[in-house]
Every structure is written in C-alpha cells, then in structure tokens.
Amino acid sequence: MATLAPTAADTEAAAGGAPAVRLTGIRRSYGAVVAVAGVDLAIGAGEFFTLLGPSGSGKTTTLRVIAGFERPDAGRVELQGVDVTHVAPSQRAVNTVFQDYALFPHMTVAENVEYGLRVKGMRRRDRRVRAETMLERVRLPGLGDRKPVQLSGGQRQRVALARAIVNGPPVLLLDEPLGALDLKLRQEMQIFLKALQQDLGITFVYVTHDQEEALTMSDRMAVFNEGRIEQVGTPADVYEHPQTEFVAGFVGVSNILEREGRRITIRPEKIRMSDEAAGEGEAGTIRSVVYVGMVTRYVVGLDSGGELVVVRQNLETSSQDALSEQGKRVRLSWRPEHTYEIGKEGT
Ligand code: ADP
Ligand code: MG
Fold first, then answer.
1. Which of 33, 57, 73 to mutate to test the pocket of ligand 1 (most atoms within 8 A of CB)?
2. pLDDT tens for residues 253-296?
3. Labelling 231: which of 18, 121, 218, 318 has CA 20 to 30 A away?
4. Which burial class, exposed, middle or buried, applies to 109 when counting CB atoms under 10 A from its CB (0-12, 13-18, 19+)?
C-alpha cells in the first residue's frame, strides 16, 4: 500500500522530471490473444491521464500491469523513476478503483474506507477520524455506519474512491469507474472526479471507452487500438489533429476526404455550409439531415467525390426547417488551418 504522503525523495524525483508512471515495451498475451502489443508511455506527476479505446483494445490489461496484478511478458514498469516490474502489487505506491467497486459487503462503509489503514497498523481512533474526513471529501458525511447494500450505485462508487485515496497514493488507477452509472450521474461524477484529482494533486490514470468522457476530463490521453497506442496528446490535439484514420473515427466523427492522393480530415463544426449560389467552396448535395436538438447534423455528398458530416447550431432553425433541407444543393468551405492530413510525416 502507498505511504500516507509522498516522501521528500518522491517529490524531488517528480520535480526532477521522473514521470509518475513509465511503461517501456510492455507486452502481454493470453494464449494466442495479444492483449498488449508493445506499449510505451510516460505519465507526468499530477496529470489526469486517460487510456481511451474500444472494448478489447488492451486498456484494462495495461492498467493491471501498472498495478502489478498482471506480469508483462516483456517490458518495464517504473513508478517515480523506480523499476517495479517485479514488485508485488501491495508494495507499489498505487491504488485502484474498479468499475464494480469491489467493496467488502460484510463491512460497514467506514470499515471499508479504513481497511488500508488497518492493514498498515494505524490506531483505531486515528483511522476513524481519517475515514470520516475521506467520506466528507467524497460528499458522504455521516454514512460510515451503513453497509454497502444500503447505498445507491453512485454512493458505493464514492466509497470505493474514499477507500482508494485514504492512504494518500501518489497514483490512482481507475478502470471505467463510472461505467455502471446512468448518464446524468455519470456527468456529475466526471466533474466531481476531475475536481477531486486537482484538489488532491495526485496522478490519475483513467480508463474509459467513452470519447466524450476522455475529452472532458483528461490533461492528456492515449488512444488504444488492438493492444497498441495510436496517439498520445491533449484532448484538443487528438480531436483536432488525429494522426491515424482510426483515431479520426474513434474520437469524434470521421470526416475524411481523399484529394490528390492526400487524406485530410475536417471536424464537422469547422465546416461552413452556404447556398450553392454563394459560389465559394466545394459544391454538393445534402443527402441526409438529422435534427439532434441543440444542433442539426447534415451529410453532404460532394460533386468531386466523398462525403462530409457538417453540424450547425440550431440558433433560429426548427426541426421542420432543418428536415426540409434534404436534397438541397450547397457549398462547403473551411479554413485550411482546420484541416489535418492523415499519415503525414513529422506531425
Ligand atoms: P479493454 O480493457 O480495452 O476492453 P482488455 O485489456 O480487457 O481490453 O483485453 C484485451 C484483450 O485481451 C481482449 O481480447 C481480451 O479478451 C483479452 N483478455 C484480457 N484478459 C484476459 C484473460 N484474463 N484471459 C484471456 N484473455 C484476456
Ligand atoms: Mg477494460
């Protein structure tokens, strides 16, 4: 288990530039299935770092390798500059929050939260005080005497969080922690988790398959596909400058045009759509219109080949107005700096 607070040496190492987590050449197979196929990654101290990718892309396996629950077949795991590849999970300065919470059902909420402190031999009274402080921190004051079954899903998830941060780990690993919650609660918890991470000032390594969640919460993110990382960057980087076709499609809408042997992407909200008579931009026909409340989404087939998705805010348009635009001739234009060429060297 982690120490109560990072030691001076830890802080110094962090300030000196040793990343909170560094993975080098990590591989892990299960029989014929290659779960992680060579992952290199450096996560800075205090970062909110997300592993984003579809189901089966190797996110959980990577997280479990960091925690020590999985041994990699090859590669090295470092925490704060120290090689922990062969160190047991309990001796690593990280804690994990799982999607299914994994609370001890026979213990009270307070006993669950105190667990890590009891294992370390902290006195009962001190444990109680610290557990209650943690429950306040996750906005569950006074619920310490309940059993997990007496809580809602969202409350249980916050108990799991309190239990994971009670002994002050420098790194917290979270595997789809909001996956079981409904949309509204999930959005509230996204904001809460982000605030908590900033407040604690520790490193979060956060796994999700939800691109919107990744874009909202992360300082930086790594996009996984089939056991490999396709791109690492800030949300704006990854969204606006996808480096591969997979990233362009998985993070946001894939708008790819082939022009003169180059493949370029343009995000839907960066495209201006005007009447054909405007005479500027590429001519095309609106093939479909989907009214989605705040915006309307159009698919436009271009005369010179390919199609693009365009979104428009419904400032003055009603659903009726929007739907009547199907089949209309239009022109699309965009600023060159809002396009990005896929697979271009050196970007
Ligand atoms: P993700 O978390 O991105 O959904 P995982 O890391 O869980 O992906 O899984 C990656 C691949 O490894 C999947 O094909 C999965 O079926 C396989 N896998 C993961 N864990 C095991 C295991 N314990 N035994 C066999 N196959 C596994
Ligand atoms: Mg997973």
1. 33
2. 778 898 888 888 898 989 999 999 987 899 999 999 888 888 88
3. 18
4. buried
